Amino acid sequence: MSLLSSFDIGASGLTAQAMRLNVISSNIANVESVSGPDGRAYRARQVIFSAIPAPNKAGAGVAVTEIVESKEPFRREYRPGHPKADPAGYVDMPNVNPVEEMVNMISAQRSYQMNIEAMNVSRQLMLKTLDLGK
Q1: Span 19-56, pLDDT tens digits
Q2: 45: containing domain
């Protein structure tokens, strides 16, 4: 693996973690959305990553394979006066767990920072290599 390929790997990690942060932000923003475009409550989404294969190498980075909806059941809250309430007075609320989403956000943020740090180390190594030629 050359030092230049480490920038490609780091950039793919930054892109993947940025997508993960966007999905997490969407989940948090819709924690109380009882009606989406399909008329149903919002379903939490998660990002699925996969390694980018490289010929004769361990890998060339990471990519977002897909964004999947959670299969967890909706939260049911008793709100008898709500327009979306069923005859028993219950409303289907999004299956977003705000605490879990905040933990995921911290993890994605730290992963993003680590990718930046790895790219900075690669840059410093390249500069030191150039200084050897002086």
Answers
A1: 999 999 999 999 998 887 788 889 999 999 998 887 76
A2: 3-132
Alpha carbon separation from 122 to 3, 6, 71, 102, 118 (Å, rounded)? 6, 7, 41, 30, 6
Query: What predicted TM-score, i.e. pTM, was given to this entire model?
Result: 0.85
Cα gap 45→24, rounded to integer Å: 8
Spell out the SS3 assignment of the chain.
CCHHHHHHHHHHHHHHHHHHHHHHHHHHHCCCCCCCCCCCCCCCEEEEEEECCCCCCCCCCEEEEEEEECCCCCEEEECCCCCCCCCCCEEEECCCCHHHHHHHHHHHHHHHHHHHHHHHHHHHHHHHHHHHCC
Count of the separate structural domains present in the chain: 1
Please give the single-letter amino acid code of residue 121. Answer: V
